[in-house]
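Chapter review: from sequence to fold.
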Amino acid sequence: MQKKWHILSPDPKQVSTLAKSLGCQPAVATVLINRGVCDPDHAEVFLNPSLSHVRSPFLMKDIDRAVERILLAIRSNEKVLILGDYDADGITATTLLFEFLTYLDADVGYYIPNRLTEGYGLRRDYIEKHAVPDGIGLIITVDCGISSFDAVSAARRAGIDVIITDHHEAPSVMPEAFAILDPKQPDCPSGFSWLAGVGVAFNLALALRKRLRDDGFWNNRPEPNLKASCDLVAIGTVADMVPLVEENRIYVKAGLEAIVSDTRPGIKALLDVCKMPNRSLDSRDLAFRLVPRLNAAGRLSHGSIGLKLLTTSNMETARAIANDLNRENIERQKIESRILSEIMQHLKSNPELLEQRSLVLDQQGWHQGVVGIAASRLVDRYYRPVVVISVADGIGHGSARSPNGFDLHEGLNGCAQHLEKFGGHKMAAGLSLRAENIPAFRRDFERIVCQKTTPEDFVPELVIDGEVSATDISPELADGLEALAPFGTGNPEPLFVLSDMDVLSTRVVGANHLHMRLRSPNPPKADQAEPLDAIFFNMGAEKPHPAHLDRIACHVRWNRWGGRKRIQLVIRDLIGVH
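The token string follows.
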């Protein structure tokens, strides 16, 4: 798909001043200014994120009530249950709170619903069939609960208090919970609206630790080092694709360090099964290696398997679970491939569907746990809002994904009359509806997308930080750009334009990736004629290999392999191929 290039152009004087103040390459200063980091003091905080910069968790609405209620439960030896979502964000959040409350000698257990048989979040039947008979006095939800009206009301009638910790879009009327920690509440003054579910849970743990410190609780036992729990926060934050800004950036940076320096057995086993060398990790490693395997069990069998992996202290147990998750992930990939193959065949037979601004696709028997990934793949390919619905027993369970330019949650709210329930974010959401309502939903969803967008909104855009020359690419530049990590939503990896490059050689690597050796045809000095490694992922082995590239948009990375590192250009797009 043709991409629109948007090349940023910060003030050259501002770039020069910041580069001189920091002693960095102009390209690095350019990226900082493009990210809104325009002065040396701000840059110092950005380049050296520290947990000391984290703001007080007590800024969140209701956190005092939540802390006092949890401490009352511990002192009264009340049964406490943590109920979490079945994805990586929910699993890591549940693990974090479970471990912390266990350390406080709470009578605490956890529960992860089965995606396929129970669905998402806290449900009324769980209250009636499990929580009441088990004598639970307090339920803490993590990464869910903000839409669990019936369940919270049922718990209240049964004398069970519920503390909701969530980060999804808040409804106009809130559940009748004892306390609600959701930074997206309109009247929450914290400014933490970009936190993942695990980030909200981490702030609750920070608040509990601080209150106990003020009470002298830690005079008789070691105060827990919550930096060690940032391994969980990093995984859940990256998994949920929330913006890596402010506290999120700090948590992910600290978490990556925690994983490398003091890896818990479950994460060590996952790293081993991914065949990842013992080296520094980055956010891409979490997103593309660890997270899919943690998510696999929740998609195909039961999310509690991932939680058992993260909580075990036994390395042999961890290895066995990690191998099971790896097998589940391979099976998930096969199912995903089958679903996408059926969808591509359907679109080929019905090309008029691609003339619409949205895609709503449904099929009997598609695996409910995999439709979300299929929707994401289709957004990448067709760059428009996509809803993929699995139908079984007359009910459709769907996942929706959207590129920038359209608010999914708002769009689904406009179709609420067709839906049994829905929830999520601007770019990702879940829904359920009766099968007979799918055609009406498809029609109205397309109408709303057309009302809220223009065709130009769905032309994929590459936001490029600036232009560099071949002579700018050096170890100093690669080091300087790496210092801007972790990269992700809200802090994308720097992208540059490089012009007029000869292609010295090409070869296909992996399934469909093109490796190239590039060199400027007219280097200013002979010693600057060293070829540059470049790779274009999924370029297509069947396409003619180029001899010259007029302009490329690329990342400049260190490629570490076999104990060595080499600069590599990772090409995202190109213009002018000869």
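Two observations follow directly from the output. The first strand starts at residue 4 and ends at 7. The chain has a mean pLDDT of 93.
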